[in-house]
């Protein structure tokens, strides 16, 4: 029974920003579960090729496409190409994102806008063009990668928090508009994970490292592979009546106010 419920084999999943980090871990999880993975990145073809080779070495069917998720024309062209060369996209994970850690009073408007553009506007652009096909087929799954910062703030990440808070509401609105086409739109809200993006705040000796471990009931940084289960659930039949939900995978951070550092 659960075999069919959580089955994603044969499905085609586009994961934006999947050459590294959380996107890669989620794409890998779906790939190991039998989905065909469309890898996307925008930095270089070499990086995409290297990621594709890595996925393939694990027996995953993966194909790479380089395009800029903030450029609507590039997105339209890439999606048409993917659909012609690989097939219809069943699952879209809007994962590509950046962070700039700059206090608001010191932040340039251009930098603020760049974060909003990549983290909030691009999920709109990519979804708009992928979902058109899903509407025709009356079936689809969209997962927007949110954040702890969809719910709470933190010094220096104002633009990112504004984008991720917006992405939570965009998720709810997409769910509202598209549920009638049998398209489920949900979010995953990762807590603090050990990735390259968090490396600068995770290094030993940085007080933030100890702070996060103390702040997280599970008392550790997450392993990116811990996101695979949530990605599979929200990509499969098991979530067919789950709409507009943000599934936080955070070791319990949002469940608690935290504790003083001298408390076990
Ligand atoms: C930060 C982090 C964020 C978090 C993440 C929490 O500086 O606060 O780097 O990116 O890792 O988004 O959900």
Feature tags:
43% helix, 264 residues, seven-stranded parallel sheet, 7 strands, 9 helices, Rossmann fold, alpha/beta, globular, binds D-gluconic acid
Structure write-up:
There is one protein chain. This protein is α/β, with parallel strands linked by helices. It has one domain: Rossmann fold (3-Layer(aba) Sandwich). It has nine helices and seven strands; from the N terminus they run H-E-H-E-H-E-H-E-H-E-H-E-H-H-H-E. A seven-stranded parallel sheet has the order 3-2-1-4-5-6-7, sandwiched between helices. Strand 5, helix 6 and strand 6 form a beta-alpha-beta unit. Helix 2 packs across helix 9, helix 4 packs parallel to helix 5 and helix 5 runs parallel beside helix 6. It starts with a helix and ends in a 15-residue tail after the last strand. 44% of the residues are buried. The mean pLDDT is 97. The chain binds D-gluconic acid. D-gluconic acid (GCO) binds next to loops.
For the record, the count of structural domains works out to 1
Hetero groups: D-gluconic acid
Q: What percentage of amino acids are in beta strands?
A: 5-15%
Oligomer class:
single chain
Based on DSSP secondary structure assignment, what is the total number of beta strands? 7
**CATH level 1 class label:** Alpha Beta
- Arithmetic mean pLDDT: 97
How do the strands and helices of this protein lay out in sequence?
Blueprint: H1 2-5, E1 12-15, H2 21-32, E2 36-41, H3 45-57, E3 62-66, H4 72-85, E4 91-94, H5 109-137, E5 140-145, H6 158-178, E6 183-190, H7 199-202, H8 207-215, H9 228-235, E7 246-249
Parallel strand pairs: 1-2, 1-4, 2-3, 4-5, 5-6, 6-7
The protein binds D-gluconic acid.
D-gluconic acid binds at residues 99, 101, 147-149, 154, 157, 190-192, 197-198, 201.
């Amino acid at each position: 029974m659960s075999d069919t419920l959580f089955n994603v084999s044969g499905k085609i999943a586009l994961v934006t920003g999947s050459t590294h980090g959380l996107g890669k871990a989620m794409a890998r999880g779906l790939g190991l579960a039998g989905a065909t993975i469309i890898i996307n990145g925008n930095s270089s073809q070499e990086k995409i090729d290297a990621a594709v080779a890595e996925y393939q070495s694990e027996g995953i069917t993966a194909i790479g496409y380089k395009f800029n998720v903030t450029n609507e024309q590039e997105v339209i062209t890439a999606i048409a190409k993917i659909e012609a060369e690989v097939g219809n996209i069943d699952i879209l994970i809007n994962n590509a994102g950046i962070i700039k850690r700059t206090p608001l009073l010191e932040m340039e408007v251009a930098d603020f806008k760049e974060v909003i553009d990549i983290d909030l506007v691009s999920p709109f652009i990519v979804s708009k063009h992928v979902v058109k096909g899903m509407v025709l087929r009356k079936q689809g799954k969209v997962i927007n990668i949110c954040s702890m910062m969809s719910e709470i703030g933190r010094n220096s990440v104002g633009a990112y928090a504004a984008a991720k808070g917006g992405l939570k509401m965009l998720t709810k609105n997409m769910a509202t508009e598209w549920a009638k086409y049998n398209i489920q739109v949900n979010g995953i809200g990762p807590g603090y994970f050990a990735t390259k993006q968090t490396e600068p705040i995770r290094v030993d000796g940085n007080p933030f490292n100890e702070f996060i471990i103390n702040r997280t009931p599970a008392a550790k940084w997450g392993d990116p592979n811990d996101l695979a289960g949530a990605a599979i659930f929200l990509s499969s039949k098991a979530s067919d009546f789950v709409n507009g939900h943000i599934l936080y995978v955070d070791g319990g951070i949002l469940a608690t106010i935290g504790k003083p550092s001298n408390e076990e």
